[in-house]
Amino acid sequence: MSRAIAVLRPGPGNGATAATIEARGRIAIRMPLFAVRPVAWEVPDSKSFDALILTSANAMRHGGSGLSALRPLPVHAVGEATAEAARQAGFHVVHVGAEGAESLVAQAEAAGIRHALHLAGRERTLEPGRIVAQVITVYASEPCPPQDAPRLAGSVALVQSARAGARLGEVVDGAGLARAGIALVAVSARAAQAAGTGWERVVVPDDVRSEALIEAAIALAD
């Protein structure tokens, strides 16, 4: 019997990922470890920048009305989900990266970008430096109590951020579950490291797109 796959990301991405897993005939455990909320922010002059860097669709979902003033900026995004959220918000996406934030910055720099604006969460991996001229917090992810944590036993867990990795370790240990019975598919080496040791197996796909993570999780679940 196929193992259940635990989806830990916040909504609405949690439901979308779980639905994709279920459409493949597998069991998805919907267990968001964080809830995302908007943060008040001041909109800068778009003329001070030559691009907008996005690493999460949450920046578009929670950025509010201030986003409209930044639409002249071309978008460099990590992942197709982030890119699609930007398109739906009226932005022009010029590049979609599949290897994480640092790789995206390097690719944008190679394309000639010199003064990029990054709209981000309160906890993030990119800070000002190199071509990133300014980082503005537009949303925050707050830990929320896990629902029915014992269901994680024997599952394959999708770890899509370093914070999720650390939080998963806390939840599993707090519930008295054996880490050795849970396998992880992590979005990056950093996310895997944050989860700590003792897991049955940890897989870090080369591709950070949600589809690639799901494929890796299904391979472990079967």
Short summary:
The chain is an alpha/beta fold.
Describe the structure.
Helices cover 30% and strands 24% of the residues. It is an alpha/beta fold and 222 residues long. The strands form two sheets. Strands 3-8-7-4-5-6 form a six-stranded mixed sheet, with helices on both faces. α5 packs parallel to α6 (189-195). The longest helix is centred in the C-terminal third of the chain and has 13 residues, at 162-174. The chain is elongated. The relative contact order is 0.18. The mean pLDDT is 94.
Any descriptors?
about 220 residues; 5-stranded parallel sheet; 7 helices; 11 strands; about 25% strand; elongated
- The percent range for strand residues is 15-25%
Q: Please state the average pLDDT score.
A: 94
Stretches where pLDDT is under 50 for at least 5 consecutive residues are none
Give the CA-based shape.
Answer: elongated
What fraction, in percent, of the residue positions are helical? 25-40%
End-to-end C-alpha gap = 7 Å
Order of helices and strands: EHEEEHEHEHEEEHEHEH
| Rg (C-alpha, Å) | 18 Å
Structural class: alpha/beta
Tally of helical runs: 7
List the helices and strands and how they pair.
Elements: E1 5-7, H1 13-23, E2 28-30, E3 34-38, E4 51-54, H2 58-62, E5 75-78, H3 80-88, E6 93-97, H4 101-110, E7 116-121, E8 132-143, E9 156-159, H5 162-174, E10 183-186, H6 189-195, E11 201-203, H7 210-221
Parallel strand pairs: 1-2, 1-9, 4-5, 4-7, 5-6, 7-8, 9-10, 10-11
Antiparallel strand pairs: 3-8
Helix pairs in contact: 5-6
